[in-house]
Amino acid sequence: MSDLMRPARKFVVSSVSSDAHMWNLVFLQLLLEEYGGEVHNLGACVPDQVIIDECRAERPDVLVLSTVNGHGHLDGLRLIRKIRSEPDLKDLRVVIGGKLGVRGPENVKFIEKLAEGGFDGVFESEGSLRSFDEFLRGLAPAPQLALAGAKEAA
Prior knowledge:
This protein is of the alpha/beta class. It has helices at 23-34, 48-58, 72-84, 109-117, 128-137, 143-153, and strands spanning 10-15, 38-41, 62-67, 93-98, 121-124. The protein has a single domain (7-153), classed as Cobalamin-binding domain (Rossmann fold). α3 (72-84) packs parallel to α4 (109-117).
């Protein structure tokens, strides 16, 4: 992947409140850093209000939520409703991915529900890494990089 394909962005990465898994968050942090992103990893079992407070403090371009315990559809829907009700965070890009439910192939039904709830991207575990990569590639370059490129071209 060329550097031109890597948008430098600021990310907050977290699990949902009921999810104690950490390796997925470490993987995401490394992946986003490989894209040139600045990552603030909140870790596992993060309460909703802490996520909201950290998004206010960090002002990320994207909040990335990862879950592998199968309760992401419940915790995620509750959290996104809270985020979208906050005037200063209502336009924040928020994505969720991983094991969203415990029903195997039926988990795909949660994708639409979470998207309708306010997520900008929902990535169910099967094949989701490719979709997440496409999402990242679709992010516009960070404003400071766009300016740097314009100065170099001048």
